[in-house]
Amino acid sequence: MRAGDLGILIDTGPDVRSQILREGIDRVDAVCYTHYHFDHLVGIDDLRPFFFHHRAPMPCFANEETAAVMRSNYDYIFGADPYPGAARVRLEEVTDPFPIESRYDDGAPSVQAEPIRLLHGDMPVYGYRIGRLAYLTDVSEIPPESRSQLDNLDVLILDALRPKPHPTHYSFEEAVQVARDIGARKTYFIHMTHNVRHAEQEQRLPDDIHLGYDGLTVEVEG
Ligand SMILES: [Zn+2]
Prior knowledge:
Strand content: 25-35%
Number of strands: 12
Radius of gyration: 17 Å
Number of helices: 5
Strand order of the largest sheet: 6-7-8-9-10-11-12
Bound molecules: zinc ion
Shape: globular
Distance between the termini: 13 Å
CATH topology of the domain at 2-107: Metallo-beta-lactamase, Chain A
């Protein structure tokens, strides 16, 4: 996403290279990781071109569990002796709201981001809130202590896998209930599985809830 002048990625999935090219993303100041499943992580090498002409390190924010897996699986990036061509990413475990700063020495104002503790089955994962937008992927439960972080949202991006219940993702019915409770001005469902018929499902949703799609652009006032 673009927050002011800053470019911020949430996760680096296997499609991140084609997404970056499709959207013409020319700067990434930071990556906020939600969890360590590989469909959210494995595109990390595709950050390398952001260091070809600009060597400043890029912070990768994550919870403790995610950071531990990243360190052990990507020793050539995060180990004591990184591979010389590796992306110059720097792991930062976060538990509280944190600033994301420009890595381009251009005076672009920093942006405050807030990790939101969620459960993906039994697994502790993060959602993120930046301004009046929250992005909650891969979630099956919002613990009560995290709920107040989701007040006064313009846009909620929320996991909704499929009509049938699933142990680690919200179903459509559950996601509609959660969206109702949170009451964002607009909610977009993401992470739908391949057999969801987009147009049919969209018609069944309340007016303020939509299915996301590749290339969807959402604008949120500061
Ligand atoms: Zn996952």
